[in-house]
Amino acid sequence: MSRVNREFFLGDAVSVARLLPGMDIVMDEGSIPGYYMITETEAYLGENDKACHASKGRTKRTEVMYLEGGHLYIYFVYGMHWMMNIVTGPGDDPQAVLIRGAASFTGPGRVTRNLGVDGSFNGEDLTTSSRIWVEDKGYRPELAAGSRVGINYAGEPWVSKPWRFIITKK
């Protein structure tokens, strides 16, 4: 296995979201250090994507999304869940991939809770971090594409974009 490099994360969010399932999130810190296969992802494609946090422009919260691909964008929702996103694309082009499933954990809040990911990981560089990174073992599982979850506020065509990728066969 090898750590995923910066060049991989410079792809657009949809392409990266399609390639991440089957790769491992490696934790060397957190609740349970180890390897966790990514099983579900969801792409957010920048300022023009009405479901993307960056659609409202650059803010203190979204600033990390404007970094070059490979950084983590972590935010808190509903007063109880951390969401883990991987920034993609070149700098100043705010795209990200939400990690919706890893190992046996389904749902982005369960992923972060079980891996011990919290706000302290916001801005972490996956290409150089000693506590969290992504490894590619060359496994390319069969995937299904579907619409994104919980974004009705964005309206069409954003609600129906098939930018969620789920492993169907391991």
Task: Describe it.
With 170 residues, the protein is mainly beta. The protein has a single domain, classed as 3-methyladenine DNA Glycosylase, Chain A (Roll). The protein is 11% helix and 34% strand. The chain is built from three helices and ten strands; from the N terminus they run βααββββββαβββ. Strands 1, 2, 3, 4, 5, 6, 7, 8, 9 and 10 form a ten-stranded antiparallel sheet that branches. A hairpin with a 6-residue loop joins β2 (24-27) and β3. It is globular.
Keywords:
170 residues; mainly beta; 3-methyladenine DNA Glycosylase, Chain A; ten-stranded antiparallel sheet; 3 helices; 10 strands; 34% strand
Describe the structure concisely for a colleague.
With 170 residues, this protein is mostly beta strands. Helices cover 11% and strands 34% of the residues.
Q: How many strand segments?
A: 10
CATH top level assignment = Alpha Beta
Which topology does CATH recognise?
A: 3-methyladenine DNA Glycosylase, Chain A
Instruction: Catalogue the unreliable spans.
Output: none
Rg estimate, integer Å: 14 Å
Q: What is the share of helical residues?
A: 10-25%
Structural class, from helix and strand content? mainly beta
Specify the biggest β-sheet. Answer: 10 strands, antiparallel
**End-to-end Cα distance:** 18 Å
CATH architecture: Roll
